[in-house]
Amino acid sequence: MLVVSPNAGKVLTHIRTSAFRLPLDICKPIIMVGAGSGIAPFRAFVQERAGLAAEGFTVGPILLFFGCRSTSEDFLYADEWENCKR
User: Fold this and answer.
1) What distance in Å separates the CA atoms of residue 53 and residue 50, rounded to the nearest whole number?
2) pTM for this entry
3) What are phi and psi of 33, to 5 degrees?
4) pLDDT tens digits for range 31-82
5) Which of 1, 10, 75, 79 has the smallest number of CB atoms closer than 10 Å to its CB?
6) Helix (H, G, I), strand (E, B), or coil: what is residue 85?
7) Exposed, middle or buried: residue 59 (CB in 10 Å: 0-12, 13-18, 19+)?
8) CA within 13 Å, CB half, 79
C-alpha cells in the first residue's frame, strides 16, 4: 500500500547522460565482458545488431565474454546466446 503524506516535500532528482551505447558505425567490432546480471545491456546490444543484420545491413562482429559460477543456475539467456553463435 502506498501512503502519501499531505506534508510531503519535493524530491530532487538528477539525470545524467551516459556514453554507454553502441558505436554509431555499425560495422565496428565490439568486445564485451560481463558477468551475472551485468549481461543485460550487452544482450540489448546483441539484439540491436542482430536486428540490423536481419534487415540486410552489414554489421561488425561481436565478441561476448560471459562468466558465471554455475551454468545450470546462472547462465542467463543461455538459449538466446546459443542461437547467436556463428
Assistant:
1) 5
2) 0.72
3) -130, 125
4) 999 887 788 899 999 999 999 999 999 999 999 998 888 878 778 888 888 8
5) 1
6) coil
7) buried
8) 0
In the beta sheet, which residues pair with residue 39?
none
The cell numbers describing 51, all together, are: 536486428
For cell 561481436, the residue is: 62
Q: Cell 542482430 identifies what position?
A: 50
* N residues, the chain: 86
Cα–Cα distance measured from residue 29 to residue 27, given in angstroms and rounded to the nearest whole number: 6
Which residues neighbour 55 within 8 Å (Cβ) at sequence distance 6 or greater?
Answer: none
The C-alpha cell that represents 9 in the structure block: 516535500
Instruction: Tell me the β-bridge partners of 63.
Output: 31
